[in-house]
Amino acid sequence: MHPNLVDHLTAFISVADRGSFSGAARELGRAVSSISYSLAQLEAYCGFPLLERGPKHSELTERGRALYAEARAVMEHARRFTFHAASLEKGEETRIRIAVDVLFPQSPLHKALKLFAAQHERVRLQFFTSSLNTLWDDLREGHVDFALALVAALPLGMEGRSFQQIAMSPAAASSHPLAQKEGPLTMADFQAARQIYYIGSYGVDMERSGRTFSSDVWTANDLEQIRLMIRNGLGWSFATSYFFEEEIRNGTVRILRSVDAQLHPTRTVGVVWPIERPPGPLAQILIEMVGEAMA
């Protein structure tokens, strides 16, 4: 490979885009003679002309057009290499792995992601849907860098930041018998109706799962499946108002009220990470953006 290939390709792309050596020289802040030298070296390296040179305008040859897209691809990889090296030098991450609790509010999260992507477009974010069934193990074993979750309390070895308190409540289709009853519902009402419950792992024992109250429980590891089950009146489930936001607005799903406080638990919405592996500089920026969006 020619030692100055990146410089030569930069000049080639600029001449092709600007249509002249002088235009490329102005764009790149180089002398016209330097641009001409780079093109001559690149053509010698290829073994054929890349440009048809005119007195005022230069155009790509047929072979030049065939290589133009390849040249841009090489330059894009070179830019990524430079960005990666600079990020590593500053101690910044080039990949952030995030576990997102199935109940974490999506609207503020995606507002923050849009802002972060605009400012740090080369950082690769990886998202993993999670639940408290598997979350702590994923963090301890280093599968993810931090988690956005709804938690009641942090286990040993974890620390984090709280964004806000949020209430969970039972929800059902407006056509469901529970939604048709007058007044606050009792625990017995919920125990007599089918509960739809999220379980994210095949290895989770249903009998030891958290907030199950009915003797008739259906489980699913897919949120959209649960959403459809509830909308179609197949049972009730715990949810935040965020999860059924659209359905509540159009009246197809209702939040159910109960006299029993167990059916309206409060959770802390926040971010969690292992004490021994705190988030890196860019992860901290993203966390701050999520916190501002939640506020």
Automatic annotation (TrEMBL):
Keywords: DNA-binding, Transcription, Transcription regulation. GO terms for molecular function: DNA-binding transcription factor activity; transcription cis-regulatory region binding. Residues 4-61 form the HTH lysR-type domain. PROSITE patterns: HTH_LYSR. The keyword Protein biosynthesis does not apply. Pfam families: HTH_1, LysR_substrate. Belongs to the LysR transcriptional regulatory family. This is DNA-binding transcriptional LysR family regulator.
